[in-house]
Amino acid sequence: MSATTYLFLANCAVWLGVTGYLVFLSLRAGELEKRMHQLELLGGGDNDRS
């Protein structure tokens, strides 16, 4: 295989990794949002300490 083929495959691998990481972050953010909502329902969301 030529150098261009290897470069293309490496580029695809990098973008697949970036995409996978962004999906992971998105899922984690959804879990955190859900947990924050649960805490607010339990009365833990009152952070008005003025």
UniProtKB/TrEMBL annotation:
The chain crosses the membrane at residues 6-27. InterPro entries: Put_ccm (IPR030888). Keywords: Membrane, Transmembrane, Transmembrane helix. This is CcmD family protein.
